[in-house]
Task: structure prediction
Amino acid sequence: MLNDMMSHFELYQPADVDNAFDLLDRFGEECWTIAGGHDSLAWFKDRGKQPSAVIDLAGIAELHGIRETAGGIELGAMTTLTEVERHPVIQERFSILADAARMVASPQIRNSGTLGGNVLQDTRCWYYRFGLACYRAGGNTCYASAPEAMNREHAIFGASRCVAVTPSDPAPALVALGADMVIRNSGGERVVPASEFFMTPAVDIQRMTGLEPADLLTTIRIPDTWAGANFYFEKVADRGSWDFPLVNVAAALRIEGDRISDASIVVGGVQAVPRRLTAVEDLLRGRVQNEETAAMAGAAAVEGAEPLRYNHFKVPLMENLVKRAVRDA
Amino acid sequence: MIESNSVYAGLAGSSASLPKNPGSGPDGPIESAIEASMCAQPSLGESSLGWLESRGNWSRRNFIKGIIASGVAVSGVPYLASAASRPALQAGAVERLISLNVNGQTRRVDVLPNETLAMTLRYKLGLTGTKLGCDRAECGACTVLIDGVTHYSCSTLTQRVRGKEIQTVEGLESASGELHPVQQAFIDELGPQCGFCTPGQVMAAVGLLMENPDPTREEARQAMAGNICRCGNYDHYLNGIMRAAREV
Result:
């Protein structure tokens, strides 16, 4: 097992966020922040990342827990996925997020994996994870889009040199719910909508989110906008448990009478960021929720898809998932 | 069973008697471990060369021993050296000598900052019932209970569980030596085939029954989704859980 041994680092366990900011400022790019630790420890064991200092956020009480606020709910970034999945208010008003959290990996991982860690995890493109010097790792080629590459799990939209996809299940649900990400550093706080939080390779190819090295994602706020709406979440993966999505869909619909008054539909696993389907949403407003509308939404959703050699199947898969979401939400 | 006899535990124990002043000198146990490892290297080299030269002595056992030993020498030395060559502890970093509550006992142990709970349990505390299958949070063989909740010990830093109650498969037996109902039910339902995943399956099932003493088969299936059995004995384990739930 010694080849799985992580290289040495010093471990810091700050008790509050100010202490964590001191450490982040002190170590800069040499440090790594760990939440649940699943993404992080895998990087360390593979020697893909070798930070000299690791900051463990588990002891910071204010990063944990779910609170009801005047305009919605607030989730500490260190709230575990099991807590998200089982929280009565989330189950009642934002069941789509509970459903998404339940689909992540396995029970043991959900017991320690956190919501913040899940949305911040790095992409699972195995060429990149293997440690190859691809664009995302600062190199000058993409191994996953080479003619003979195995790219069954990769992007069908928005590729820009890199074809990696977002691996998260909760992220599409958070974007669909119009969540806000609260980011803090020693200089203060800023709030970024979830829809702008994730980073396309065209903007920055080496990052998955807008989080800077000295930043902490402290809180995720979910406004009441979609509370109690008609929700739909579905994930398709190769295995029934412990697997990343091939494609997942998160949809929230408001129905008045028999017509769709508003819609928010987001698809994961098809692009580097959770893909919000604004054109489909526009198309749906004012239409009757039925098979025909659903089929149209599905067809519109995959317009402009650019599959790679081995992931053509994602086009009809995404089409059918969007169709089911609109029909069954 | 809990008394440890591994060399690693001895190593951990020796550091407990060192003066606890991190800046004052090199870490004794680490250095001696490096020496041991360095000394071991040439002789290991000889043994594997000897194997190459005299095909007559070829045996599968020697081949495997040689491969394993050279792997240890190559990958172990830089790891230990990196820990020993570092300067004084950084201000504010975690202490290495900590107490862990394992199966109701308080154990003093020397834990590196980058050490996983599975490593500590197996190689420092001698609790080898907890298995390392993948070491990547994929297979579930390393499942333990932390404050009554299932976790993969291969993907939990030991420094993170100070002050928490850790329960491993060794702690399930009653004082009189009676097996836990889940263990007995797994035997009765022929759960284990090769048995490697069994401790993890047992701990996942115990965690489930603590939280939900009367699960449906589907709930049990969901709760066991993080434990792989490569013999494919899933239904037997599920039968065992349902039997244990009836009997608890």
